[in-house]
Write a structure and sequence with these properties.
The protein is α/β, with parallel strands linked by helices and 330 residues long. 35% of the residues lie in helices and 16% in strands. The chain has one domain (5-320): TIM Barrel (Alpha-Beta Barrel). Strands 1, 2, 3, 4, 5, 6, 7, 8 and 9 form a 9-stranded parallel sheet that branches. The two termini are 21 Å apart. The chain binds iron/sulfur cluster. Residues 20, 22-24, 27, 29-30, 63-64, 110, 143, 145 line the site of iron/sulfur cluster.
Length: 330
């Protein structure tokens, strides 16, 4: 990927369900009670899709293995009402609807098996799973899915299946700096074997009210700078480093090697960080000037050139991508 530009994508963010088997100490997304739990129904999804504006990406996020969560009966009943029996089958249906409406899906549904990845592969332009960290942390003591072995295994399977993949690390959840270095090296090692990583997100922890880590301080900006600098030194140049512009100041991190700002949405909020609105496109341009901003698709140009996408989404990619594999400007 050319470093001539700083890239971003335009998405709609669909939280498929907030029922989750894990209980991370920093999370406000997971439903803590039956009253707070939801599954986004097909009709609600269509209402969002019909007002997608200029979005080209449908970002699907969900709690991990809701079928195994303590609110599993709520989840299972809601999904059965919609005509499905699992998170993956239901989300696949939403992906197909998204494609019919001109959106390229990107699913991040937590840890998935090889069979589940295979089921979703052809209806996704790319998929994702934050590694978060290779360290064992107190923040994850009630989260079996945050076992780094499971997460690295899924990233590896995605590589074997040739799925363009997004991963990343969380900074400030109790890890040491050497843990972050170890996490980045683990990502690098998987990429060297399979070539599947398109971007690595460096995401700062921000404390959320009513969570166990509410009184924990977020990482200092100079710590963020150190990690971005280290990531650029460790990761191969073809992997973009992404910093979320609603959670950190991007320009100084771009100077240190970040080159992507992730997805922003005009129509939907960041359900994982609901207190942090995304900047608009023009605001982003001003924030990062004189660096030039370019829109990309949820699949990076390199993977378009390599043909790592299915028949199901090929028409959309041809419609949207210019000769460099970025979003057409007209
Ligand atoms: S951060 Fe993700 S995995 Fe952890 S509890 Fe929240 S939704 Fe579940």
């Amino acid at each position: 990927m050319s470093r001539k530009y700083v890239t971003f994508s335009k998405n709609i963010f669909i939280p498929v369900t907030n029922v989750c088997r894990n209980a991370c100490d920093y999370c406000v997304f997971k439903a803590r009670s039956r009253e707070a739990a939801y599954v986004t129904g097909v009709q609600d999804f269509l209402n969002v899709v019909q007002h997608k504006g200029a979005a080209t990406e449908a970002l699907f996020s969900a709690g991990e293995h809701p079928e195994l969560a303590y609110l599993s009966s709520f989840f299972n009943n809601r999904v059965i009402e919609e005509g499905f029996t699992s998170l993956v089958a239901y989300t696949k249906n939403l992906c197909e609807i998204a494609i019919q409406h001109g959106l390229l899906p990107h699913c991040n549904l937590g840890v998935l098996s090889r069979d589940e990845l295979k089921e979703l592969r052809d209806v996704n332009a790319s998929m994702g799973l934050m590694l978060e960290t290779t360290a064992e942390l107190a923040a994850h003591k009630n989260s079996p899915g945050k076992d780094p072995t499971l997460r690295l295994k899924m990233i590896e399977e995605a590589g074997k299946l040739k799925i363009p993949f997004t991963t990343g690390i969380l900074v400030g959840i109790g890890e040491e700096q050497e843990d972050s270095i170890c996490s980045l090296n683990a990502i690098k090692s998987l990429h060297e074997q399979y070539g599947q990583i398109q971007e690595v997100i460096i995401q700062p922890f921000l404390p959320k009210q009513s969570t166990a880590m509410w009184s924990t301080k977020p990482p200092r900006f100079d710590e963020m700078k150190e990690i971005v600098r280290a990531a650029r030194a460790i990761l191969p140049d073809e992997i973009a480093i992404q910093v979320p512009p609603n959670l950190t100041a991007p320009k100084e991190l771009i100077v240190l090697g970040a080159s992507d700002l992730g997805g922003i949405s005009e129509r939907t909020i960041d359900y994982i960080n609901p207190e942090s609105p995304w900047p608009g496109e023009e605001e982003l341009r001003r924030k990062i000037a004189p660096f030039e901003l370019r829109e990309r698709l949820p699949i990076y140009p390199r993977f378009i050139k390599k043909g790592w996408y299915s028949e199901e989404i090929s028409q959309l990619i041809e419609r949207y991508a210019d000769e460099d594999g970025l979003m057409r400007e007209e």
